[in-house]
Amino acid sequence: MQVGILTGSGTYALPGFEAAQTVLVSTPYGDVEVSEGRWAGVDVRHVARHATGHARLSNNVNHRGNIWALRERGAACVVGLTACGAVDPDLELGSLVVFDDMHFLSNRLPDGSLCTFFDEIGDPQRGHWVLHGGPYSEQLVDLLTTAALDAGLAFQGGGVYGHVDGPRFNTPAEIAQLSECGVCAVSQTGGPEAVLCGELELPFALVGFVTDYANEVVPGEPTPITTLYELIGRSTGVFASLLREALPRIVACDPPPSAAGTVVRFGSMEGEG
Q: Which fold has domain 2-269?
């Protein structure tokens, strides 16, 4: 079983990636670089969503290409890792959040188009992603939560992820509104990844690393930029500790993790009646 890994700010390569090679994958949405090799004894397909040196800001991330490429190269499930800002003041800087729900009302890609693979009339794979609960694979969420506990990492099990558009950060009013919706942390990339994995029926889970408190979450005390940079740098090691525990459990899971929800595909209904 091959596991797809999406990494974000500060993590452009996986430390200790064995026999890694970079494959340029041609997709309907452009070429995507995928690093392939073994990590923690597991076959891994890795995409750095921002590319080396953070070449792509959040508004330039090729979400459809990234998810398509991971599936094309054999990933049977995907774990997303993201640096995030805390909306819940009780979250500790430098801690993890294993999300179990999502707030992504705009449902749009960075270019403003709707976030979907189903953009062609008559596409036989077209359909609706119908959710019966949260947007993340329950098995992956459970495995990541147990792995964080066994690795001795500071984390919160469960919480609502808030997708916000970048590249700017949010105003106090925007953060207050998200807090009213129950969002505990925000970043600028995780929403499309969950939706697109759902449409491809790829089990997906998202883990955040808290690098700062969002605007006015701690009144009058903004997180210093130096602290933000320091924590982004620290996130790679923390994510690596989590993956070392989680990846072997994911590939050993029997039955394998299942995707969240159900995709009702209209192509399968053609000819009925």
A: Rossmann fold (3.40.50)
